[in-house]
Amino acid sequence: MRLIQNMTTIAEYPAADFTVPSRAIKIAVIGASGVGKTALVVRFLTRRFIGDYERNAGNLYSREVQVDGEQVTIQVQDTPGAEMTDNGISLPDHVSCSIQWADAVVLVYSVTDRRSFDLIHHTHQLVARAGGAGAPPVILLANKADLLHLRQVDPQQGPLLAQTLGCSFYEVSASEDYSQVHGAFHRLCCQLAKQTPAVPNNTSASATTEKRRSPLIPRPKSPNMQDLKRRFKQALSAKVRTVTSV
Ligand SMILES: Nc1nc2c(ncn2[C@@H]2O[C@H](COP(=O)(O)OP(=O)(O)OP(=O)(O)O)[C@@H](O)[C@H]2O)c(=O)[nH]1
Questions:
Q1: pLDDT of residue 159
Q2: Ranges of Polar residues compositional bias (predicted)?
């Protein structure tokens, strides 16, 4: 199966009307704060890595790609960081809603943050519980593989955990390797595209799949490619300032 990304076309829909032109694949990205969720999403969708992100309040990104010659809208929900508490896991409401909304979930931990790894098992349980029989497929991403000297999670622990959870595993570096990040999301998209039948225009494919759907499915925020562009400009101008001041 071939996934062709049209790098020049970025879908942007008005906030008031969020119908999509063809089938849509909805992916929620979940993990502890600071593991690189936003970096991964932006890397996948734009090929770029930007070092500095504001703390994420839960943004929805959207873009059009072609899967096997068919136009598909990929919607990726970046979520606020989950935290471990004395009583277990604390998931912002937004994250729980995103699990209900998504066709698939990407669980992320950082190899430099043991707590983020420990959180995965709990988060996976919540995903499975929320989905019931129709739980969404999950993949596990270990991010920041470039930071060898800061590693707190051994390389073999990720695959073992993935095996226990019954999901695919990828160790990636959002900062160093686009192809790893793209490969992980790409395979997930192909898997989802195979599962969801083509649908008439203006109907979300996920609306046709017989799945768990809570009445609390969140209304997605407006796709924020404008916000992304603003951040690119900020990052670029910061670099220019640094160069001119040297
Ligand atoms: N070295 C390295 N740094 C990374 C990588 N991915 C992300 N970072 C950095 O890690 C920090 C956190 O990244 P974010 O993408 O904001 O993490 P997040 O999970 O979205 O964080 P919250 O918004 O707090 O939930 C940023 O300084 C990134 O530059 C990576 O693969 N390698």
A1: 98
A2: 198-208
